[in-house]
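so ive been stuck on this for like two days lol. basically i have the seq below and the ligand is guanosine-5'-triphosphate, smiles is in there too. i just want the complex predicted, nothing fancy, no docking runs or whatever. if the output looks off dont worry ill sanity check it later, just need somthing to start from for the group meeting slides
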Amino acid sequence: MIGVVLAGGESRRFGQDKALYQLPNQRVNNAQLAVDKLSPLCDRVLVSANTQNTPALTKQFADSTNVAVITDEPPFEQRGPLSGIYAATCQSDFPTDLLVMAVDYPYVSVDVLSVLANHANCYARTPDADHYTLAHFTTTREVLRDFLLLDDYRLRDFITEVQQCDPISFANAELFVNYNTPEADFHAH
Ligand SMILES: Nc1nc2c(ncn2[C@@H]2O[C@H](COP(=O)(O)OP(=O)(O)OP(=O)(O)O)[C@@H](O)[C@H]2O)c(=O)[nH]1
């Protein structure tokens, strides 16, 4: 299984790069938190970065075996999370088993990820939201390319319609705080 840390967004709402951001109550930044949680479950972890944060992330993971920083692949760069997932599938000529985690879920635990890892084709659901950027499925670059060529860049459509992923329900919503904005903590507690 290949872990994918989605870290190639623009973080406009957050106001600074979410992957490089270190929460006041954490010892490492969000990218490291995600890599550290995926690593025990995955053979390899790909950090899907953008052109701005690639230099810092490449330096950060230079000594980490089984971690590689990748950037979006043409012609589907910077069109949302599916751009990063497409880039991850481009690393292999074969169907790839992907455990995907957005970098802006700092409190998602290894336990949550292992539940996802143990189900084929699934994504996380909490009572208040569906979390399509926390998902596990096997796909190929051809399947993804054909979908993106339809001009649909919605991760939800790909996950539910193409991959036919099932939601896995988790009750502990506090683990799924999504740091899209600096106020995320306020809403969480
Ligand atoms: N590789 C890659 N990842 C992306 C892209 N857009 C978003 N992501 C990642 O997908 C996850 C969900 O993205 P969003 O939170 O919806 O978007 P964002 O760009 O991070 O933030 P906003 O600019 O505030 O919308 C985050 O972990 C992003 O880093 C993209 O074009 N390429």
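The beta strands are 2-7, 44-49, 67-71, 96-102, 122-126, 129-139, 166-169. The chain has a mean pLDDT of 95.
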